[in-house]
Amino acid sequence: MQRAVFAHIALHDWTHVFSPLRIRQCCLKHRVQLSSRAYSVIPPPRDEAEKALLHSMLRVDHAGEYGANRIYAGQMAVLGRSQIGPLIQEMWDQEKKHLAKFNEILAENRVRPTLLLPLWNVAGFLLGAGTALLGKEGAMACTVAVEESISEHYNSQIRALMEEDPDRYVELLKLIKEFRDDEMEHHDTGLEHDAESLPGYKLLKSAIQLGCTAAIFVSQRL
Amino acid sequence: MAALLRGLRVGRALRGFGSVVVPKTSSPQCNGLRRGFHCAALRLQEDKDKSIPVPPSSAASSTTTYHEHYRAPPSKNNTATYMHEAPAPEAAASEAAAKEAPQPNTSYADQSGEQGEEYETEEQLQAHILNAALDFVQLHGWTLEAISAGAETLGLSAASSGMFQNGAGDLVLHFIAQCNAQLTEQMAEQHNQVQLGQAEPKKTAEFLRDAVETRLRMLMPYIDNWPQAMSILLLPHNIPDSLKHLSTLVDDIWYYAGDRSTDLNWYTKRAALTGIYNTTELVMIQDSSEDFQDTWNFLENRIQDIVNMAGAAKQVASTGEAVAQGLMGAAVTLKNLTGINQRR
């Protein structure tokens, strides 16, 4: 499992390094359309409907990663110097990589980011810091709840894309599957580190998941 | 007897089937219409080999995907006859009306249009009429009369302006879309030049100023009637479309200026540029200086304001960070001095 994850991350980094170089080569050699490169993550949309769908998916994913980033930042602000600090830092670094990837995709495809980003900025930080104040178990419980919500969201996106046309969206599906696997790993890590031993765990978890569902709903539209 | 009745029933069914396959009744005009379309389709096949005056796709590069709504649909040669087999009722009525006016000339393909181009779709026909109508805006203003005059120069009846449900709004929106498309092409071309290393990249403020100036200069031939156009765009049923055109314009300008932000800056930059564009447009319509020099000075000053504000915002942020760090340092020092900071 670990090796597979490492392979995933290694592949991910390789494409990260490789793509900027190819961009410049491509544009210098021939005037191709920016989004028709074979390795671009989303295919050039066929019509307005597909464009709206893809853009809304990317927008909400970007908002999700941004929020997760801020949650970990909040947790680090409180628990950064405790024993659990390095673990949270490691999970935060993975989220930073996800966010960077989505920033790149949004910029490349001219997707509008969600207007509510400042709200997710503050809300995420407060959620992370607030649950971290409940101690290490609180932080882990928050992680478990959020990562479960995000994994479920990615799964429904994967289902939607597979129903539409798996061959057309093969790159995007690969990316979302990879990110979903990372989030599931965070979820499992949270469970391993005594998330469930928090008093009121079930209540906190359902409250956080309700908030995440609402956030996803709103970010898709706004 | 029964066999005879069955035969009659089959015959009636077949005739019914036949009339379903051929939607229009077989009147001589409509036969001529179909033949005309067939000729048009044949002529289009020939034209496809020659160079058609369509905007060059090479300049499009990164824009084709994003600006398809500005271009006429790519020549649907194969589907020309198919498309005209079942046109919208109003188009059929107006096109039939247009055909009836010059009575002997029922072949649609022989209409003398601009450069002898054939009209394949209703959208392209409307685009051609509106382009022709722009020449009459100085005379008639942004009105249906201009559209009718334009239609007449194409050999169509003046009643063709009835095709435009939105009347003058269609003309103004078409003009705006055309100007925006032209600007986007120019910016894409410049972008290509920079990518190929044949041109130096401009600084953001300079790029914005040039883009807005280029776009506003396209209004100069129509500047006397432009207040009328602006008031048409403010009509409630035109507001969604005009806002869409404006937002796409501003997004394109920022994209080619190099903005790739994915946070709240995306919104603040576009809001700022929208403000600059609208106010400069308003200044332009009441400007009486030589070559609108006052307008360009106004534009330069507004862009400088934005640049200054951005610089000031950055300074405030960095000062704030420095102050916060200073306070933290002071707090840690105090805790050390009073002995609170000891690790137990």
List keywords for this structure.
heterodimer, A: about 220 residues, mainly alpha, B: about 350 residues, about 65% helix, COQ9_HTH (chain B), lipid-binding (chain B)
Chain-wise SSE layout:
The complex is a heterodimer of chains A (222) and B (344).
Chain A: H1 2-29, H2 48-79, H3 85-109, H4 117-132, H5 136-164, H6 170-192, H7 201-221
Chain B: H1 2-21, H2 28-49, H3 80-85, H4 89-100, H5 122-134, H6 137-140, H7 144-153, H8 168-195, H9 204-217, H10 226-233, H11 239-257, H12 265-285, H13 293-338
Cα Rg of chain A: 18 Å
User: Approximately what portion of the residues of chain A adopt beta-strand conformation?
Assistant: under 5%
In percent, how helical is the residue content of chain B?
Answer: 55-70%
Report mean pLDDT of chain B, rounded to a whole number.
Answer: 77
* Tally of DSSP β-strands of chain A: 0
Low-confidence stretches of chain B: 18-28, 38-42, 49-102
Largest sheet of chain B: none
GO biological process, one term (chain B): ubiquinone biosynthetic process
GO molecular function, one term (chain B): lipid binding
Pfam family, one (chain B): COQ9
Subcellular location (chain B): Mitochondrion
